[in-house]
Amino acid sequence: MQEDIDLIQSFKAGNDESFELLIKKYRANAIAFAFKYTRDFFIAEDIAQDSFAYIYVNIDNYKENYSFKTYLFTIIKNKSIDLLRKKVPLPLNEDINSLSSFNVEEEIISRETTNLVKGKINLLKEDYQRILYLIEYEGFSYEEAAKIMDKNLGQIKILIYRARKKLKLLLEGEV
């Protein structure tokens, strides 16, 4: 987080390369997060680019007591929701990274497990899908997820508990 703050301060001082480093660092995650809302890679890419452009123009709105990633994801969420309000809502397509493995058999089992979990996550309510993505796959804290999802900490704790419980029930039905 301190590295991000240093880059932002450098950018505010006139060093555009600092902002380019932030884009390089967060671009893939930004697109992936937007994709959770849009289910369209090209639209997700546009939303991520628009979000970076918004931050570039409005960098003075950024408060350094929040992580840059939280700020970025909040903007992406808002831009995605704005777009979805204009369109018919689409279900979320959860993207789960393949588990690492040491041999082909483990890789096959890993892919099957990933596909099973991905399929079960897609059956969850959208809020459950988003909270699992933010907490489990992006590594956001509960507080950061609360800011991104415009909920209070108590609501986030309940949401993640219910999402995990529902996912566990769905997965237990597969055993």
TrEMBL record:
Residues 121-167 form the RNA polymerase sigma factor 70 region 4 type domain. Keywords: DNA-binding, Sigma factor, Transcription, Transcription regulation. The keyword Transmembrane does not apply. Residues 22-87 form the RNA polymerase sigma-70 region domain. It holds the Pfam family Sigma70_r2. The keyword Hydrolase does not apply. One of its GO terms (biological process) is DNA-templated transcription initiation. GO terms for molecular function: DNA binding; sigma factor activity. InterPro entries: RNA_pol_sigma-70-like, RNA_pol_sigma-70_dom, RNA_pol_sigma70_ECF_CS, RNA_pol_sigma70_r2, RNA_pol_sigma70_r4_t2, RNA_pol_sigma_r2, RNA_pol_sigma_r3/r4-like, WH-like_DNA-bd_sf. Belongs to the sigma-70 factor family. ECF subfamily. This is RNA polymerase sigma factor.
